[in-house]
Amino acid sequence: MAIQGLLLQAQQVCQQRGARLTKIREQVFLLLAEHDGAVGAYELLEELKAIDPAAKPATIYRALDFLSKQGFVHKIESINAFVMCHHFSECNHPVQLLICDECGHVEEIQSNNFDLALRSMADASGFNISHQIVEAHGTCQACN
């Protein structure tokens, strides 16, 4: 989906939820959407400073926190980076990411079978899953 289409969708989602997509949050959203894969907060901060020289680390982290809570982006804990979710209108789904250790490409996949298996094992342990991001590292098809 084109970046402007994603932005329009995000604006609509925020309006429906009563969430405020401020100008800074929108700028960070657009910067993230321009990346094909994962990007770190400080790289985003440098890009944001080209637009808003007064931007500080707290600015970017607050914006990323908001975008993450809305389901627009996913944080990749293992590499401390963020990636755009291109189907966030339905983003109550479990997140499963394939991360290429060679080129850095990140692909979001969905496997209901995997989710069911994990939830079944969690239920058997009396564990209630509230949020799920599964990160798998390896080598993508292009790098193989």
Automatic annotation (TrEMBL):
Keyword Metal-binding in annotation: yes
The keyword Transcription is annotated on this UniProt entry: yes
Positions with a binding annotation for Zn(2+): 100, 103, 140, 143
Listed GO CC annotations: cytosol
Gene Ontology molecular function, alphabetical: DNA-binding transcription factor activity; transcription cis-regulatory region binding; zinc ion binding
TM annotation in the entry: none
InterPro entries documented for this protein: FUR, Fur_C, WH-like_DNA-bd_sf, WH_DNA-bd_sf
SUPFAM superfamilies membership: Winged helix' DNA-binding domain
BP GO annotations: negative regulation of DNA-templated transcription; regulation of secondary metabolite biosynthetic process
Main location per the UniProt record: cytoplasm
Cofactor: record remark: Binds 1 zinc ion per subunit.
Origin: domain of life: Bacteria
Keywords (A to Z) from UniProt: Cytoplasm, DNA-binding, Iron, Metal-binding, Repressor, Transcription, Transcription regulation, Zinc
Cofactor: Zn(2+)
Record's subcellular location: Cytoplasm
Entries under PANTHER family matching the protein: ZINC UPTAKE REGULATION PROTEIN (PTHR33202:SF6)
Oligomeric form and interacting partners: Homodimer.
Family membership noted in the UniProt record: Belongs to the Fur family.
Protein's recorded name: Ferric uptake regulation protein
